[in-house]
Amino acid sequence: MNKKVIKYIKLAITFGIVALFVWFLVLYPYIKFKGYEKAMEKAGKRYFSINSTELPSGERIKTITLQDLYYKSFLNEDFYIPYTKKPCSLKESFIKVKRVDGEYKYYTYLQCGVIASNIDHKGPTITLNGKEDITITRGDEFTDPGVKSVVDNVDGKMNTNKVTIKGKVDTTKVGTYEVTYSALDSLNNKTEVVRKVNVVERLISTAKDTIKSTNSTNNYYMGDSKNSYLLFSGMLFRIMAVDGNNVKIVANNDIANVNYEGIDKWLSDYFYKHLTKESKKLIVNNKYCNMKVTNENLNSTECSSYTGSRSSYIPSIVDVNLSKDEQGNTYLKPSTMSWIAESMDDNTGYVIRNYFFGEYYNDTFLAVNKKYNFGIRPVITIKGDTLIKSGTGTVDNPYTLGDIIPGKVDDKVNTRFSGEYLNIAGNDYRIIETLDDGTTKVIGEYSIFNDREQITTKYNVAAEEEVYNPKQQGNVGYFINNKISEYINTSYFVNHQIEVPIYKNDAAYGKESETKKYKVKLSAPNMYEMFSTFNDNSFMKSYWLINSSLNNDLKYAVSDIGSVMYYENGAANYDYYGIRPVGYLNKNCSIVSGKGTKNNPYIIDK
Questions:
Q1: For residue 343, what pLDDT band results from cuts at 50, 70 and 90?
Q2: Which domains does the chain have, with CATH numbers?
Q3: CA distances (Å), 294 to each of 248, 298, 367, in order?
């Protein structure tokens, strides 16, 4: 056999293989499909001939799906995608009938996988004005942006007036609403486009409603009602005032005790540092009232002098006076003694509390020496368009802003944030901060009790310099580090180096004359650190502070009424105060359950 013959044989085989491929992959599926299509059209015509009353009149169109033809027994043969056991689309396949020039015309569309009839089966393209996802604030008016255009692949550009719009948006209620736009082409092919309208609660609208509920006309929350609480950076705040398009909030409790001259530095260098990254994004720098006053104009409601632009400050006398109701009640009066922004002179500032003793019993403000350390309640201005994610504004269910996402089971405690609450072996703690070595510094939420009896101690040493010293027997620091394990489970804590601040004269923020380092498991709180102040917990009683001075053996404690007390010339040797532990959690401690809030703290396991 010569080479030419062999060549022809190879070509014949190749053409044969190609022909087989064409037959099996193209011709046979197409022939099979066309057979299905004819059978379907025949069944559809038979259906309408029997049910002639269903034939459309005028410009109407009547449709019957492949599924209905099977259901009504007008088809017995099953239609499958060639070479598979998958049926052709029952709902997408249809027969439409329309009256054209006095006669009925049938349009058959069958879809079997990638093979489909060459009949218009797509609805028109609807293009909306504006976005398909819109967010508006509760109480705002919603005006539907409408339809920009409707274009069909067969009919061309269509009149937008033929679009049907369904759906209502209730702007008085938070929720997601749907507005549906639908259009039909000349063959009744339908298209639907849905616009989602999210009605959200923004801080500014909530603040206005909250303030209005107290019958306020000056944009300040008034009186002492209980519907103005919100969580911010793990701390409980109160809505204080609407300031333009933004909202001023104030901490519900003192965060720390600071001398008046240290307030600015403490707020900018310490407090701001402990806010979460997401919380800081919500803050608007603002100017806050700070003016010179005297005992004669303490009732002022107009501010004459302001700070420069800053991230936070403390309440002013004007803030307090504007927040009073007709009975003189205001939530800005704490149970502790808390600094007010204004001062009388270079040496004298003002504090506020629920009530004072003796001749100052009915006073709202008390003039005191600026050297004393009293409570700090930060005031912050938040962007008014901040979304409220959850909550009802009560103390048990405060508004949340989404700046802290609760931790999950098995998350490490050292990944959490300052201000969140923990429960460790039945005792409540609060996170002060997480450290670079992986430990988490926490403070007990209340003083230590044993069988309903508060555990107390005193300085009982004769050393010349009676400063806080955890290595000195008879010292408060020694008692805390060595004896408290008899009353609480300390196995979650690790030994950690602490710095004891010692002052040459009175304690003042950032003015330590020296610090001494010790390695301990537990210590007393530092009055300048987060959450070291007295809180409203019924188990909170007096407790010692780590701060002390070389001058006249000054030592500091927090009394049962929440104010910082100091003792000198050995007087502390005669007074007993409680213990509020500060410790460092093992870096392996993790979350078992809980949300990190006061009412639902994280349960911790090691």
A1: very high
A2: 3-116 (no CATH), 125-200 (2.60.40.10), 203-382 (no CATH), 407-605 (no CATH)
A3: 26, 7, 9
